Each structure stands twice: as C-alpha cells, then as structure tokens.
Amino acid sequence: MTSTNLHNPLPSGSDISLPWHLRLPRPLEKDFRLYFRASVIKIAPLALVMLAILLVLAVCVEYLIDPAVIAVSWRPRLLTLMLIVGTLILMRKPAWHVWLHPASLLLAFGIAFTGDYLGMAIEHPLSYTFFLQTPVAILLICIVLRVPFYAALSSSLIMIGALGVCTHISQHEPFAAMTLLLLTLALGSMSLFGQYVYERLLRQHFLSEHVLYQHRNELHSANIVLESQATIDGLTGCINRRGMESRLNHLYHQLNSKTPDAPRRISLLLFDIDFFKQYNDTYGHPAGDECLKRVSSVPLSMVQNETDFVARYGGEEFVIVLTNSSFNDALVFAERMRNRIEQLGLPHSGSRVSQVVTISVGVSCSDGPAENGAELLKMADEALYQAKGAGRNRVAQMSHEGQVLML
Ligand SMILES: Nc1nc2c(ncn2[C@@H]2O[C@H](COP(=O)(O)OP(=O)(O)OP(=O)(O)O)[C@@H](O)[C@H]2O)c(=O)[nH]1
Fold this sequence. Notes:
This protein is of the alpha+beta class. It folds into two domains: 24-213, no CATH class; 241-406, 2-Layer Sandwich (Alpha-Beta Plaits), CATH 3.30.70.270. It has twelve helices and six strands. The protein has helices at 26-41, 44-65, 67-90, 100-121, 133-144, 149-169, 174-230, 241-257, 276-283, 285-302, 327-344, 373-389; strands at residues 266-273, 309-312, 317-323, 359-365, 395-398, 404-406. It has a six-stranded mixed beta sheet with strand order 2-3-1-4-5-6, sandwiched between helices. Helix 3 runs antiparallel to helix 4. The site of guanosine-5'-triphosphate has 16 residues, from strand 1, helix 9 and helix 10.
C-alpha cells in the first residue's frame, strides 16, 4: 500500500477554509445560527440590564438639564424600556431564543429612531446629542448583542441613512450635524469591522469543531469495525479467545459489583471434539476445518440471550457462556448440544467412541467457589478433563462443592 492509499484521519487545511463572504454550506449554516445564538445568550441578559440602567441615568440627566425635556422624552424612553424588557423575556425560554436577533434589531431601531425623533422634537441647544443614540444602537447590535454581520450591516445602513435625513431637516447647526454624522460613520464602520472579524473567527472555530467531530466519528466507527474484527474467529465466526476473556471478565465484574444490568449467574460450558487429531489425520486438515465450522454452528444456533455467547477457545475447544440460566438449565443446554452435534452425523472413523463426530463437555457455574472468569474456566476445564477420562462423548459438571459429577 502506498502512502497515498492511506486514509489520513486528520482534517486538512482545505476542510476548514472559509470564504470571504462567510457563508457556510446550507445545513452547516443552520447549525451555525444555533451555535452563534448560544454564544450571545450567555452575555445578553447582563448587557440588557446595563442598557436599562443607562436609560434611567439618561432620563435623570435630561431632568437635570431641563425638566421640560422629560415631558417630550418619557414616551420614547418608556418604549425603549419595554423593548429591553421584551428582549429579556425572550431569554427565559429556549424555544423563544429564535426571536433573539430580530428582537435585538428591533431594540436597536427603537433606540436609533427615538434618538432621531428627540433630536428633532426637543428645542434645546444640546438636543442634537440625542442623535448619538444611532451610534449607540450600532454598537449595541455589533459589539454587545452580536447580531449576524449582514443583518447588522443592513440595519446600520438604514439607521445611518435615517440619521442623515433627520440631521439634515433638523434646525441644528450644520457643522454639529455633520460632525455627528461623521462620528456615527466612524464608530459604525469600526463596530461593523469588529463584528465581521468576530463572526469570521467564530465561524472558523465552528467549522474546525465540526470537521474534528466528523473525523472523530469516522475514527470511532473504524475502531468499532477493527475491534469486532480483532475479536472474531475467522474460521467459525465465533468470538475468539481474546474477545471471550474480555467479555467474561466484564460479566464477572458486573456480577461482583452487582450493577443493575448485572447477570444473576454465569454458567460456562467448555467442550472439545473427541479424537480430533485422528479426524485430521483421517480426512485431512481442510475437512477438519469444515468439521469445526459445522460443530460450532450448533451452539451458535442455540444461544439466544443477548449477553450469552459462543467462543472458540483454542484449536478444537469451544466455550459457551450463559447468563441468567440456572445451573440445571445450563446442564440441559450442554446435553442437548452434545446430542445435536452427535445427530449431525459427521463420519469419524478414527474415533474410538463413535462412528460420528462427538464432543465432551465440562460445565461450571458462578454459584460455586469461582471468584473470576479464569477460575470458572479452570473448573469447567477440570470437569471436561474428567469427561474425557470417563470415556468421552459426555457432559460432566463441576458441582458447587467442587466435585465433578457425570451426567
Ligand atoms: N483442521 C484443523 N485442525 C486443528 C485446528 N486447530 C487445532 N487443530 C487440531 O486439533 C487437534 C487437537 O488434538 P488433541 O489436542 O490431541 O485432541 P484430540 O485429538 O481431539 O483428543 P481428545 O481431545 O483427547 O479427544 C490437533 O491435531 C490440531 O492440529 C484448526 O483450526 N483446524
């Protein structure tokens, strides 16, 4: 395999590049909106409370300068306060968060337009300063409430346009009006530039996280495939010895720690084909392989419980682990399996106990003295050894008292 054939699981630079106009592919764009909104929700309530305090302070200053101003300004001020409270209420429920950006824009327009109105309606030498509410509104949507860049840009242009018209038709000195407009333009363009840079960084961050997440998922799936390949016996399709040991240890760990999904009991059946060496010698190794497949298909078809399994322990030795069956049921299972394998009728002229392939089985159970999987296996092995010694083609059990009994 050449290096170009190898799949590189790490994201490449082209995976996370972002166009100048910031747009992401459609499905990602949708996810980004949620991500973007979530980044604002954390800071917005505090920002809105501060804005409400500023509003109250502004009213106090207006009163100190000239109490007559309040007579004109209280309605616009009340409207702005209501918009702030409305936006704060929207934060309370996640289902309403979708309205956060429209509400922020509405609030900004409220601030800018009430400023324009007050700047024109109030006759006072300082009333042109009300027009400063427009740059405040632009700062609010760009720096504080962080409305998406294009919405912020178009809204700012409308607000600046309205400011230009209002300063033009108001009775204020042209120099003051022009200074205000230029100041607003300078502050607005800097805020918008900052918002563009911020959103670009946020999108880049979102994209990198997305690409990493995808690659992590791919690696995870590949690991699952590799893990299952590493624990399956290629010839019979049973779990291999490594897989068996890890599953058995896991089950025993659950049993000992008494977790809610722990098995009540574990029964272990260890079986071995009788005179398999002679089978190979008589029929050849490929036929021996075929025999192993046929024999193992019997317990594989009998196991039903999700946590039960059949494993190839060694050459012609197999393990069946049954969870939650009583010891008696496990013995019945073993005898039925022995019988079904005999009933397969695979000719075995080299066997000294039968004309067909037979097995010997040793059975042990976790109700006895075994404290872990290895000890349970040792007990079943001892029973199997005795079954062989007693003439083969039979089932032997290791009793809870540690005695081997023939069935
Ligand atoms: N065809 C084939 N044979 C295998 C495989 N793995 C192990 N064997 C053979 O299985 C035989 C096991 O022989 P023994 O351990 O002597 O056991 P046995 O002949 O079955 O005798 P008893 O267990 O005492 O009845 C050996 O000849 C191994 O070569 C395999 O994957 N395929």
